[in-house]
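Risk register update: the risk of archive-format incompatibility is retired. Evidence:
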Amino acid sequence: MTEVTTKERFNLLTAFRKIPFSTRAVGALYFLVLILGVMSGFTFSRLLSDSLHFFGVWAILTLANVPSIQSGTGPNFALPIGIVNGLLAMVLVLAMGFTGIGFIIVAGIFAIVFGSLSGYLYGRLMNAVKGSEMAIAPYTGFAITAAFSLVWLAIPIRHPNMIFFLGDGLRHQIPLDYFRANFILSEFLRFQILGVEIRTGELLVVGAACVLMYLFFRTKTGIAISAVGRNPMFAKATGISVDRSRIIANMMSTAIAAFGVIVYAQGFGFIQLYDFPMFMAFPAVASVMVGGATGQRAKVANVILGTLLFQGLMAIALPVFSRLLDGAGFVNPLRMVVQNGIILYALSRMSKGATQ
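Archived output:
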C-alpha cells in the first residue's frame, strides 16, 4: 500500500514538472488574484463569469496561431491582417443592412473569404522571407493596420450611425446596438449555474472551431502541414510541397482571425477601427504560449488552457486591483506591466521551443 502511494505521488510530481513553468506561474497568479478578489468583496461567481467571457471572445483569435505554428512559420504576429479583414467584412455587412444573427452569418462568410485571400498573399510573403518570419510578421501587421486607417477614412459609406458627426470617414467605435447586432452569441442560450454566467453561444462557437481544428490536423493536409513545421527537409524528401503547406496554413490562420474578431466585437457590443488591430496579436500569441505551446508545436489544448489562464487573469486583474488599491491612478499601468511582463516571458520561451 505504501509503495503504491509513493508511486502515485512520484507520478503526480513527474506530471506536474512536465507542465511548462509559464503555465504554472500564470495559473498560480490567476488563482492568487481570484482569492484576493473574493477577500476584497467580489463574489467568486462574478470573477469566474468575467473570466469565461474573456475566454469566449479571445479563444478563436488565439486558435488562429495553431496553423501558422504547426507549419513552421511561427506564431502569427501578423494577426492584424486577418483582423482588418474581419472588420472590413462587418462594416460592409452593416452598410448592406444586415442585423441580428444575419449579421453574424454574412459577416462571417465575408470575413473567411477576405481572410483566405489575404492569407494567400501573406503566405507567399512568408515563403519569400524564410528564416526571417518573426522579424517580418509584426511589421506586416503594423503596415496593414496603418493602410486600413486610410481605408476607414475614404470608404464611401454614409450610414449616420457609422460615420463621424462632422465630416466623412467611419467612427473609431461603431456601437452594434444600433443594428441589433450586439451580444448575439453572448446572449444565445445564456444561463447561470450558481451565479456563474454561461454564454452558451460563444462557447459553442469556440468548441466547434476547436473540434474542427483538431480534426483538420488528422487529415492528410493537416499531417503534411505538421510535417513541414517539424522537419521541412524530410517533408520535402517525402514529396510534400513545403511552400504550398505553409500557404494553406497561413490562409487558415488569417481566415480564423478574421472570423474571430467578429466574435470579439459582438461580445463587447461595438466595432473598433483604426489603431485597434495593431497590438492584438501579442495577447493572442501570449495566450497560446502560456498554454504550453512552443515556437514550432501548438495544440488545441494549449489554446484552451492558455486563453483560460491568461485572458481570465486580464479580465479580473483590473477590478480586483482597483478595489485593493482604492482606485489609485497607477492601477491600469500596473495591470499593463503584469500583462506585458507575461507576454514578454511567454515570447521568450519560443527560443527554447525552437531547439526542442
